[in-house]
């Protein structure tokens, strides 16, 4: 587990940068063309194979060297028609559209970072 934590710390700035880039350029459901392109570009840069499943959907598969269990991860890329009311430096650049944590995650303390 320590190796995962070390890798996460080493890539924190990169990861936060990508998240903020997506956050500041939100796209509504089925219109996430720029976001999908960014995801594909990042996957290509990491050598991870992927396929498009809709014009804006992306599925990537990372296979290990040994047989075993499979872990599936899912992420929503779409934004909501909500006004972002803050002054963060990565605030949505699109009026009336923003990425917003779910109410369940807000209650758990997972807000915008």
Structure characteristics:
single chain, 113 residues, mainly alpha, 2 domains, two-stranded antiparallel ribbon, 2 strands, 35% helix, globular
Please explain how this structure is put together.
The protein has 4 helices and 2 strands; from the N terminus they run H-H-H-E-E-H. The chain is mostly helical and 113 residues long. It has 2 domains: 1-26 and 79-113, no CATH class; 28-72, no CATH class. A hairpin with a 5-residue loop joins strand 1 (50-52) and strand 2. The longest helix has 13 residues, at 12-24. The radius of gyration is 16 Å and the shape is globular. The model has no long low-confidence stretch (mean pLDDT 86).
End-to-end CA span: 24 Å
Strand content: 5-15%
Structural class of the secondary elements? mainly alpha
- Spans of at least 5 consecutive residues whose pLDDT stays below 50 are none
Average the pLDDT over all residues and give the rounded result: 86
Task: List the domain count as a whole number.
Answer: 2
Across the major sheet, the strand order is 1-2
Beta-strand segment tally:
2
| Major sheet size, sense and barrel closure | 2 strands, antiparallel
Number of helices: 4
H/E element sequence: HHHEEH
Q: Rounded to an integer, what's the Rg over CA atoms?
A: 16 Å
Give the overall silhouette: globular
Share of residues in helices: 25-40%
């Amino acid at each position: 587990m320590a190796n995962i934590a070390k890798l996460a710390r080493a890539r924190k700035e990169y990861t936060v940068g990508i998240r903020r880039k997506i956050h500041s350029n939100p796209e509504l459901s089925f219109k996430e063309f720029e976001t999908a392109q960014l995801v594909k570009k990042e996957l290509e840069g990491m050598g991870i194979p992927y396929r498009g499943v809709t014009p804006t959907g992306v599925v990537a598969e990372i296979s290990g060297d040994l047989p075993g269990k499979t872990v599936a991860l899912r992420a929503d890329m779409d934004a909501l028609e909500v006004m972002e009311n803050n002054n963060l430096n990565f605030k949505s650049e699109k009026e009336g559209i923003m990425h917003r944590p779910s109410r369940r995650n807000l209650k758990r303390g997972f807000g915008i970072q």
